[in-house]
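<goal> How does this chain fold?
<body> The protein record starts here
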Amino acid sequence: MEPVDHSDGHGGHGGALVPDEPIANPGVPEHLPRPTDVDPAKEKRAERQVAGFFGLSAICTILFAVSYFTFDVGDNWHVVGGLGASTVALGGTLGLSLLFIGIAIIHWSRKLMGDDELVEMRHPAYSGEADRQRTLDDLRTGYEETGIARRPLIVRSALGSLALLGVPAVILLRDLGPLPGDKLYHTIWGQGGRKITVIEDGEEVEVEVPKMRISRDAIGTPILASDLEIGDLVNAQPEVLFNPERYYVPHAEVEGAALQTHKSKASLILLRMEPEDIKPGKGREDWSVNGIVAYSKICTHVGCPISLNERTTHHLLCPCHQSTFDMTDSGNVIFGPAGRPLPQLPIEIDDQGYLVAQSDFTEPVGPSFWERDYEER
């Protein structure tokens, strides 16, 4: 048995010398042609069967889309085996769609693709140019043996069924949740100062809701401007979350998940500094009170809560990714990945000396989103 030389042409070897047949060839049973290899009619029938399975897959995908819009989740009158019709229909149609594609591919490979037995000897790890070329030739041969070029019916049916599988993916995007609408642009701070109609003594009366007081986070006590000293940093929330009756807000709107949503969007940082340190932006000359400024606590990078204050510089640092905001200069970013300043809440003092919000934030709080506009301050 002659050894095979795998030298690399430079005096070295790409691998060890190995025999072309390291063990005796045990032989393989005599190759028997399949019916589809010798009978054109059976070959054509197998081709139609494969296309039929791809077609069934496409039909099931369409039925998935129909089921999604036909059956409502929770319909008790559509119960199948203890499961709702929506669950059964969606799971059954999508499962059958994938199953028929698998059956079609297996049937295709067993009846129509190449059916030759191959023996491949182990070779050194290094592949020479001849081996690489042989690999490309094998790939080309495999492509030709699939019969794709000669069987356009299978190709078209396969592409059609696979393309339709994108329909369930698009439809299911709807179940990620309802679109937010304009909820990203507003917070509960806007509840104060509005006019509403209430029933008093059987008559409709228009009243003005008091402007929203700023309360200490967790305990909910309103904050007197006179209580804050230079350098104080206070985490705050709107008083409506602790006293909804004062602002004519039903309890149902500030409980459970709704409460957590309101708290996350309305969280504030109050900071008091020397009034002369503040450099108000255009149109923000009256947004502070005796050196007290209020900013959103939500970082504009990815929404982390901010609370690290450099007292001497009045810089606010996000602990997640070190975005740094200047509280003296409209919350502008001076370092880090945040792309926008912190939204500032315009504040004032009511007739009892408590800090209140003049209005809602004039821009959305939190991280950026596609529809959001940004103007330089």
Remarks:
- Confidence is low (pLDDT under 50) at residues 1-18.
- DSSP finds seven helices and 16 strands in the chain.
- Helices lie at 35-38, 40-70, 85-111, 129-146, 152-164, 166-172, 256-266.
- The two ends are 84 Å apart (CA to CA).
